[in-house]
Amino acid sequence: MTNSQKLVEQYVPLANKLAYKKKRVLPKFVDIEDLKSAAYLGLVEAASRYNSEYGVAFSTYAYPRIFGAIHDWLRKEGWGKRGEFSKLLSLDVENEECSLKESVAAKDDRNDDEFLEVVSIDLDQQAKDILRQYFVDSYSMKEVGKRFGVSESRISQLITQYKTRIRHKWSESELRAELAA
């Protein structure tokens, strides 16, 4: 067994820990097994590139690489920075990755504003306005911040907070039922 293989075997718990840590901030329907798979890929890559001669512990070296692999997978799946608002709630439908908005499009002629209204029903009007300006109207965070008299970083924090609230409110079946109504 090579040194890389030994490192992978020894540090699988670290990869699992990072996958579960990230799962806590994602919606219920994001599969933990997908996150663990991404983490394992990051672990294997870290093990193959690790050089103990630099005097850095493997766990220190592997941590950001595993977490980065998880983030790369999330970005690839549409959970990355900005993207379209519809990717806020991605679903696995019949083994094909697509957004929920696209999956109901054949039955539903809702536009982005109506979709936003449905998924953000429990948010206050300011939250809806911020999300609309950023995701639907495509204003930058800086522009949205100017309109609301707050900094760009505060808008980023608010958008993250609103997205988290929306993701945790809606299960896949609840959102499907609400959009079909």
Short description:
This protein is mainly alpha-helical and 181 residues long. The protein has helices at residues 3-10, 12-23, 32-49, 58-76, 100-103, 112-119, 125-136, 141-148, 152-169, 172-180, and strands at 90-93, 96-99. The chain has a two-stranded antiparallel ribbon with strand order 1-2.
Please explain how this structure is put together.
By secondary structure, the protein is mainly alpha-helical. It has two domains: 74 residues, Orthogonal Bundle (Rna Polymerase Sigma Factor, Chain: A), CATH 1.10.1740.10; 96 residues, Arc Repressor Mutant, subunit A, CATH 1.10.10. It contains ten helices and two strands, in the order H-H-H-H-E-E-H-H-H-H-H-H. It has a two-stranded antiparallel sheet. The longest helix has 19 residues. About 17% of the residues have low confidence.
What key attributes describe this structure?
about 180 residues, mainly alpha, Rna Polymerase Sigma Factor, Chain: A, Arc Repressor Mutant, subunit A, two-stranded antiparallel ribbon, about 65% helix, about 5% strand
